[in-house]
Every structure is written in C-alpha cells, then in structure tokens.
Amino acid sequence: MQIMKKIALALLGLVPMFAMAHPGHHHHDANFWTGFIHPFTGLDHLMMAISFGVLMWSVAKQWKLIGALGLVTALVAGFALGAQNLLPTVVAEYGIIASLLLLAVALWTKSNQILPVAATLLATFHGVAHGTELAMNGNVAVQILGMISAMSIIYVVGLGLGAFIQRYVPNGKKIIGALAAIVAVIGLA
Q1: Rounded to whole angstroms, how far apart are CA atoms 22 and 144?
Q2: Confidence (pLDDT) at 168
Q3: Which of 10-19, 83-92, 178-187 has the lowest mean pLDDT?
Q4: Cα dist. 186→14, 19, 20, 41 in Å?
Q5: Which among 156, 86, 158, 91 has a CA at the least distance from the CA of 126?
Q6: What is the pLDDT of residues 135-157, one digit of tens each?
Q7: Which of 123, 88, 176, 16 is nearest to 115 (CA)?
Q8: CB 128 within 8 A of CB 82
Q9: Domain ranges of the chain
Q10: Cβ–Cβ < 8 Å for 107, 176
Q11: Whole-model pTM?
C-alpha cells in the first residue's frame, strides 16, 4: 500500500500542467459554453469548488447559501480586478495555490468561521487569473457567466459530497483536504 501511495504521488508530480487550468484559453471563441466547460478541465477549479462545498457543508446550515453567494461574489470581484490589471497574473496564481492550501487546512481543522471566510476571500484569485487573461477579449462577460455557472454547479456537488462524507466517510474531510493540498503542491511545480 505504501509503495502505491509513492507511485501515485510521483505520477501526480509528473503532470503539473493538468493542475492549473489558466493557460491556454481560446480568446477568439469566447462564449458561454467555453466559459462553462473551462472549470471542469482544471484540477485547481475542481478542487477549489468541491473542497469549498465540503467545507461549507460542515460549518453551519446558513453557510451553505452564504458560501455560494460568497464564492460568486469573490469570483466576480476577481474578474473585475483582473480585467483592470490591478494584480499581476503571477500573484493570482500564488493566490490560487494559497486558496487550495487554506481549504486543506480548513478541512483538517474544526474551524467554523475564520478559515471559511478566508477561503471565500481567496477565491477572488481564481477570478483575477481569468479576468487578466480575458480582458483583451470583447465577449468576456458571457464567458465569465459560463464560468460562474459551472463553478456554482461544482460547488453544489461539493455540498452533496460534504453531506455524503459527513454521513458515511469518517475521515472524508481530511481526504478532500489532502487532495486540495496535493493540487496546490503540483501548482507550485
């Protein structure tokens, strides 16, 4: 079993380009569907939204809706900051890594308020990365709407996974936290 963990970790280390979804946008064909599909093609998006959903499921009932609204608000604010080039892309990428690490810590601890709020704020960096890249595109609003729609769906999947984990998987939050940390470490490569 230990050797399988080492092999899996080594294989993950060989594919850092799959971890971060930000390079390689098709600026010429920006539409709702390219924005919608994009979050499903990068581990950073998937892990952030799923981990965030699992975290918000576990903190308090009222945080589930607040989490969704906070995530959407943070992404929109990030898109706006990025479109104005107020933060360099490299800062956004490190912010994304920080958001995944913070989610990992939050899932490993019993934080009820500070870490979920911080995770929401750090989601802004996911929006900044795309706002910076898409600012030159004329049809960016529709693509952003697609991305936010997809991220909201992934977040709801995370809520469902959180409910499942809480009921059936005793250490499930820690497993999701570990996966988020792995994706963050791959992002550093």
Answers
A1: 13
A2: 92
A3: 10-19
A4: 9, 6, 8, 16
A5: 91
A6: 666 667 888 899 999 999 999 99
A7: 123
A8: yes
A9: 30-188
A10: yes
A11: 0.78
